[in-house]
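I hope you will forgive my troubling you with a question about protein structure. I set the record out below, with my sincere thanks for your time.
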Amino acid sequence: MMDAGSSVITPPAQAVLPVVGTSQTFPVRRIYCVGRNYVAHVREMGGDESRDPPIFFQKPTDSIVQDGSSIPYPPMTSNYHYELELVVAIKKGGRDISVADALDHIYGYGIGLDMTRRDLQMDLGKSGLPWEAGKAFDESCPCSPLHPVEQVGHISEGSIRLTVDGETKQDSDLRLMIWKVPEIIANLSKYFTLQPGDIILTGTPAGVGPVVPGSELVGTIDRLGKLTVRISG
């Protein structure tokens, strides 16, 4: 790796997530996301309910927003949506990882929001174009601190719930994921060589919808605490 002193610009800061119960941080290399991973959400988006291979897309690492932050309402949209998701953090890389071995690659778990410019995503999808403008924009990935596996064990079931200004909008259970966490890791590693520092957002349940400036979003997942963000003007 090139020494920072030889860079022609100041190197960008490393995106990190705090680790619960320690002063340490988890450096984030890549953000992978899974689309349409709960049947009820597939239905509300008008999709086919068949168990097709998972849909993968990415967000830029610098889209991470820390818990407790305020994020601006983004430009180029009038339909800005939340999607609450379980976050999986990878500690050991690999390619063609088996389902049986997948859990050994996990460092810990957290809570994430896949914020979405829904109008752009839908328009791009109808045109057969990539989703980046709808998904991979600035400050589109709020994340909670991570809970190491040693503290919470492996997360495969439990409540996943989002409120907006105190009103419940998403309320489901992780056991309803179409593709379970080990299957997600196995499938993803067929397409990409996973590396330590990667995180995976594992899909959202039904109940997605718009927020406006002033909205407060609170996401909770059993054993993982909560994630709170506010939308500024």
